[in-house]
Amino acid sequence: MYWVAIVDDKDKDLQHHAKIVNETMDFELVGVFKSGIDIIRYCKTKKKLPDIILMDIEMPNFDGLQTTDFLNSYFPQIKIIAVSSHGEDEMIADMLMCGVYGYVQKVKKDFNKRIASFDNILKEALYAVADNKKYLDGRFIECYKLPTPEELIIMRQNEKNLQRKKFNISKIEQELLLLSGAGLNYKQLGEICNKSPRTIEVQIKAIATKLDSGKGQLGLFSFSLRNNLIKLAKLFNSK
């Protein structure tokens, strides 16, 4: 039995994806979450982790790329399937680079004239990823010329390792940098990082001084973006 969590800020999509998971043999729903921070908080505090997460990309405050990048750094055993209405080359490359195992397009168009419903495609993705196989939506993959998922993940890992070494970033500093764009207060950050609010405040000030990034979380967030320590979803207009 594989445990599945769903992350999406849209109630309609949460309900529909939950229905698909519940109808699919060998998969059980562990929970639904309306933000990236909610699933991160769950994973940091629960002993039973989901095996697979269905992850929306376009979400407010802390989007699906940021969430995937964080989870892949701390819970690499969790396999993430991006389920998004955005399907541009650069977006899919960024998803794969941050560590997603699969990608399914929410839009139900069929560019390659292959008759396959969204529901069946998502079930295919669940079975493939559960079997440790990468999965790209067959309705759209022929439209793109991308490096392989494995190459993209290695590129992102090398990118992060290079920046961590360059700036001498510790594990807790890395965690706070990844969370700097979430709009959380010191108490909320402390709950996720298992630190007191005061300790978080002191560490954020110390990191800002060390990196000369400017004051507070906003300064850390801007610094992280400029130096490619975190990734944001570059959203395009849906076709």
In CATH's first tier, which class of the largest domain applies? Alpha Beta
**Which fold does the CATH topology of the largest domain refer to?**
Rossmann fold
Give a count of the beta strands, DSSP E runs of length 2 or more. Answer: 6
Please state roughly what percent of the residues sit in beta strands, choosing from under 5%, 5-15%, 15-25%, 25-35%, 35-45% or over 45%.
5-15%
How many H/I helices? 10
CATH architecture of the largest domain: 3-Layer(aba) Sandwich
Straight-line N-to-C gap: 37 Å
Largest sheet: 6 strands, parallel
Rg estimate, integer Å: 18 Å
CATH superfamily of the largest domain: Response regulator
- H/E series, N to C? EHEHEHEHEHEHHHHH
Broad structural category = alpha/beta
Into how many domains do the coordinates divide? 2
Silhouette? globular
Strand ordering within the main sheet: 2-1-3-4-5-6
Average per-residue pLDDT, rounded, comes to 83
Percentage of residues assigned to helices: 40-55%
Uncertain parts:
111-115, 235-239
Structure description:
The longest helix has 19 residues, at 149-167. The model is unreliable at 111-115 and 235-239 (pLDDT under 50). The protein has helices at residues 11-23, 36-45, 64-74, 89-97, 118-130, 149-167, 171-179, 186-193, 197-211, 216-226, and strands at 2-7, 27-33, 52-55, 79-84, 102-105, 135-136. It is built from ten helices and six strands; from the N terminus they run βαβαβαβαβαβααααα. The chain is of the alpha/beta class and 239 residues long. It is globular, with a radius of gyration of 18 Å. It has a six-stranded parallel β-sheet with strand order 2-1-3-4-5-6, sandwiched between helices. It has two domains: 2-150, Response regulator (Rossmann fold); 163-226, Orthogonal Bundle (Arc Repressor Mutant, subunit A).
